[in-house]
Write a structure and sequence with these properties.
By secondary structure, the chain is α/β, with parallel strands linked by helices. It has one domain: Rossmann fold, CATH 3.40.50. It has a 5-stranded mixed beta barrel. Helix 1 packs parallel to helix 3 and helix 2 crosses helix 4. The longest helix has 26 residues. The termini are close together.
Length: 193
Amino acid sequence: MSPTVLVVAATPQELAPPDGWETLVCGVGPVEAALATARRLAVAPPAALLHVGIAGARRARGLPLRSLVVGADARYSDLGVGPEWAPGVVAPDAALLRAVRAALPDAPVLRIGTSGRVGGTRGCDVEAMEGFAVLRAAQAAGVPAVEVRAVSNAVEEPDRAHWDIAGALAAVTAVTPALVTAMRAAIAEAGHG
């Protein structure tokens, strides 16, 4: 039996139709994402968690729309307190990160910031609204996790007519089956799940 992989996204549109993996719609924003993910992981922890979705990228990074990005870590930009009070960074599982990088050799591995608002991240070339929350819930539950995003817009672009949400959704859902396969192999090789 293959290790159980849970694929988590903020919205149903970001999830590929499940083909032997489980899915969770966690909701938009860090609070909803943390609550939904923690609640699901408390019921039956999977062998691994893949967090997918769309994201904005800073123009200076030069990432084209629809390009895929692998999370080097997830940073919470809204908190504003030091690590002695609350964690603000979660690293992906090292084995899953290697597996995802092998499956997406052309995708840059970058820090992904999490903020409850567009343009709310600091020190990150890529930003989304749920990554830190989902990875932090997985970390607390002892579930290895990794984040992959497709670029839908420039962070600095307020005109949504210039965003490519449909293209980014297609990019991230198209790659999900290969990512799940790579993650299952990594989990099996590590002897988990």
